């Protein structure tokens, strides 16, 4: 145990040094991949980490996410990187976890409790007969009071400007004192760089020092994926019971409570099916068959934009309603077959509703072009289809809510990695320029995208001007600005990229910046 603690603390120290070297005044790119390789190696060498299939899957997933940062270097790839890192750490140190949500939460908890984990490991460090345990017994007593004092100092500073002034003056003097000492000892090393190393040490320690309390893992082990009929003790009251009794009165105490819930479900799903049938009929007539395109009184833009948001929310709410009614013993009630049929019909109708969302978004893209938000609508509609499919499995196979979280969490994470492989910014710019004759080009939006789009924008300078939408029955018109404005804006963007590219080293290398630099003939000295 002592040797293990020594190795882990030494690995955290080396990781802090590596962190400072890789990320100081650099962009996130190749340095993230190098840092991830270091973390994976250290975690693999940790004897407490079981190298099972789950460790390999999420380790490879994180490595893929780090490579995608180097290849695509987008905001989405960074999200997938941090998400995969948290899942890898969570599953590595808690091998019995089954859901990505709990793995993510335990990894965050491990990061937050870095000071406790460090103190615990330092107290086990020994060099010969010397150990630090007596020292950290004292630290243990003062750590919590210090944290409490810091929290209340922040609160009192927010409440009183005078108190905040004195607190700021006090902290500034302390900072100057340590900065003078640090500058005297290390003349060639800045205080900011030292603090950056400390931050890296804290981050690395949080990633490789496991949280010693496994209670969350034990709690999740109690959750089941298969539903079983439970005979409830009516004398034992739960929080959920007390909440629902406000709306149901004494129905819950009666033997006919399950039958009452069945009747309530039949009425609810019957009415909802009729309501959704009416809405789907309208959508099929106006959207699927294209009759709505010829309505002069229809504000097509508002129909597409506002209607899509409402439909997506309704689909998510539909899944919540289904989960509510099939949360318990109603799954095993012999007379619930009709309710299940109505539920399946409502699921099919919601699929039709999702198809309408796809059509609405497709019309919007047809007339206005691609944007991140319109792509996001398509992605969310896809997630709704997946959600409905898993909800169907829950009802048909009598699964639990935990099963839904487990399956959907894994699918969402896999889709996040898949979508990170696509260079969305370049795809958007190329699509909009390719369909410039039929869509409303928004040059302000296109120029606002990332630097990786600069070569495509430069190649299509003549198309970089605002145009009006070709959509029927649109009342709004976009003012067309002079083309020279956009040319100057593009030139400024190119100039900013050149300045930024020259400031960073090979640690910030990524394929997209390299490709843009090659296009503009930039060669680093």
TrEMBL record:
Highest taxon of the lineage: Bacteria
Pfam families, A to Z: DUF4153
Alphabetized UniProt keyword annotations: Membrane, Transmembrane, Transmembrane helix
Residue spans crossing the bilayer: 7-23, 29-45, 57-79, 99-118, 138-159, 194-212, 262-288, 308-326, 338-359, 375-395, 407-429
The name this protein goes by in its record: DUF4173 domain-containing protein
Organism of origin: Pedobacter punctiformis
Lineage, highest ranks first: Bacteria, Pseudomonadati, Bacteroidota, Sphingobacteriia, Sphingobacteriales
């Amino acid at each position: 145990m002592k040797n293990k603690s020594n190795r882990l603390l030494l690995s955290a120290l080396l990781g802090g040094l590596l962190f400072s070297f890789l990320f100081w005044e650099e962009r996130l790119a190749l340095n993230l991949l190098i840092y991830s390789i270091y973390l994976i190696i250290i975690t693999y060498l940790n004897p407490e980490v079981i190298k099972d299939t789950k460790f390999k899957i999420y380790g490879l997933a994180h490595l893929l996410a780090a490579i995608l940062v180097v290849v695509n270097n987008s905001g989405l790839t960074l999200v997938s990187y941090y998400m995969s890192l948290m899942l890898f750490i969570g599953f590595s140190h808690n091998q019995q976890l089954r859901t990505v949500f709990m793995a993510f939460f335990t990894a965050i908890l491990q990061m937050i409790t870095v000071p406790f984990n460090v103190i615990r490991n330092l107290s086990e460090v020994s060099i010969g007969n010397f150990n630090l345990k007596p020292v950290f017994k004292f630290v243990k007593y003062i750590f919590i009071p210090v944290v409490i004092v810091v929290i209340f100092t922040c609160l009192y500073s927010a409440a009183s400007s005078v108190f905040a002034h004195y607190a700021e003056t006090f902290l500034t003097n302390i900072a100057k004192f340590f900065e003078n000492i640090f500058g005297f000892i290390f003349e060639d090393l800045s205080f900011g760089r030292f603090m950056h190393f400390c931050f890296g040490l804290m981050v690395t320690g949080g990633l490789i020092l496991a949280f010693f309390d496994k209670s969350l893992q034990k709690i999740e082990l109690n959750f089941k994926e298969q539903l079983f009929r439970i005979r409830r003790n009516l004398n034992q009251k739960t929080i959920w019971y007390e909440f629902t009794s406000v709306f149901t009165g004494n129905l819950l105490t009666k033997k006919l409570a399950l039958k009452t819930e069945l009747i309530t479900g039949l009425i609810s799903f019957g009415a909802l099916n009729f309501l959704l049938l009416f809405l789907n009929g309208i959508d099929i007539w106006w959207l699927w068959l294209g009759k709505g395109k010829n309505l002069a009184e229809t504000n097509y833009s508002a129909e597409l934009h506002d209607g899509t948001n409402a439909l997506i929310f309704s689909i998510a709410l539909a899944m919540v309603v289904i989960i509510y009614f099939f949360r318990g013993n109603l799954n095993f009630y012999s007379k619930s077959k009709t309710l299940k049929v109505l539920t399946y019909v409502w699921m099919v109708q919601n699929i039709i509703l999702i198809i309408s969302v796809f059509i609405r978004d497709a019309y919007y893209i047809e007339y206005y072009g691609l944007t991140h938000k319109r792509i996001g609508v398509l992605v969310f509609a896809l997630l709704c289809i997946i959600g409905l499919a898993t909800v169907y499995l829950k009802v048909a196979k009598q699964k639990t809510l935990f099963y839904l979280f487990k399956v959907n969490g894994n699918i969402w994470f896999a889709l996040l990695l898949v979508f990170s492989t696509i260079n969305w910014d370049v795809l958007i710019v190329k699509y909009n320029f390719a369909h410039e004759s039929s869509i409303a080009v928004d040059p302000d939006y296109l120029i606002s995208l990332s630097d990786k789009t600069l070569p495509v924008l430069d190649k299509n300078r003549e198309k970089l001007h605002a145009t009006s939408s070709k959509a029927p029955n649109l009342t709004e018109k976009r003012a067309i600005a002079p083309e020279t404005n956009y040319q100057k804006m593009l030139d400024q963007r190119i100039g900013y990229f050149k300045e930024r590219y020259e400031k960073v080293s090979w640690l910030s290398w990524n394929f997209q910046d390299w490709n843009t630099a090659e296009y503009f003939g930039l060669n680093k000295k």
